[in-house]
Amino acid sequence: MESFAAFPLLSGNHSSRSNTSCSRDNVLKTVVFPVLYSLLFLVGLTLNGVAVWVFFRIPSKSHFIIYLKNIVVADVIMILTFPFKVLADSNIASTGLRIFVCRVSSVLFYLTMYISILFFGLISIDRCRKTLKPFRGTNSARLTRRKLLSGAIWTFQLVLCLPNVILTSKPPKSPNFKCSDLKTPAGLYWHEVVNYVCQVVFWSNLVTVIICYTLITKELYRSYARTKSQGPGGTICKAQSGGTVRKPGQAKRKMNANVFLVLAVFFVCFVPFHFARVPYTMSQTRVVLFDCKLKLFFFQLKESTLFLSSSNALLDPLIYFFLCKSFRTTLFKSLKLPPGTCSWLLKRGSDTDTDTDCTPMRDSTG
Known about the structure:
It holds the Pfam family 7tm_1. Keywords: Cell membrane, G-protein coupled receptor, Glycoprotein, Membrane, Receptor, Transducer, Transmembrane, Transmembrane helix. The chain crosses the membrane at residues 34-56, 68-87, 107-127, 148-167, 193-216, 255-275, 304-323. Its main location: membrane. By secondary structure, the chain is mainly α. The protein has a single domain (2-356), classed as Up-down Bundle (Rhopdopsin 7-helix transmembrane proteins). Helix content is 68%, strand content 4%. β1 (235-239) and β2 form a beta hairpin. It is globular and about 70 Å long. 36% of the residues are buried. Residues 1-21, 233-251 and 348-366 have low confidence and may be disordered.
């Protein structure tokens, strides 16, 4: 039931050995992507393994750290699905393993993808709040609410996806089955419901990210204009000793780059895939309008952008390192690295800079 690929299953479009004239079993699918996902698995598992090790040593003392901890858990689960995808794409998986991919592995892949998207939206809101109200603190009640919200997100996604596991229960009628062939009628209907919900999740979070970073950009521009009018000492930094020091220009550039790293990762990883799904879905549901070559092109486009979505598990550690000072500090201490390590990468001149918390200087009325 190839026309049912509006919400592409990881294995339904990957592991099926199509016997139609529009076969997808080419070098790109069976060789190139398995190699890329194998590399992504090895590097991603290493980086996220370190991230888990570090985050277990960091208390959940801010909304941002709570969200990052949830993302790293989602990334680890996603990475663990890659070996099954590699076997299915390479056409070397057994029938039983392909059934497992249809019922479990692919469901976990998309479950973790949309959990990450939801937490990226929350991080964008948090970064926006920090930019507009940098001196607003937090307390245990707010932290507890964020933890409950995180638990609600995982529960919602699990409840949404669990029927896809339960209702993918039909035995395959031939070796060349697709995941949709294993679904009961109720499973096909629920799969369509999940498709629509995931569409809402992505597009609502895309709007949230755009709005938040539009507000962040405006505030940074206003802060820059105020700083320029007030003279060269444009940024006030609060040191651990309780005093304040001015860091002209450097801290502002660092903060700007850090803030927009979340935006860059979101757009690189998630936006291309969801835009590519539109023509891909049309090619699957409106067969008359697309010839074989065009259908194959959109399939390969979808697969390529799906790989970008998977690379989110590799890029997220950049957010942990560059945006989370607690993560860097704990990592360096755990590895017993000397002060000033990676200062060239962080563009910081001394260990004193590492121990500062720089925020844009605001008007007293702001």
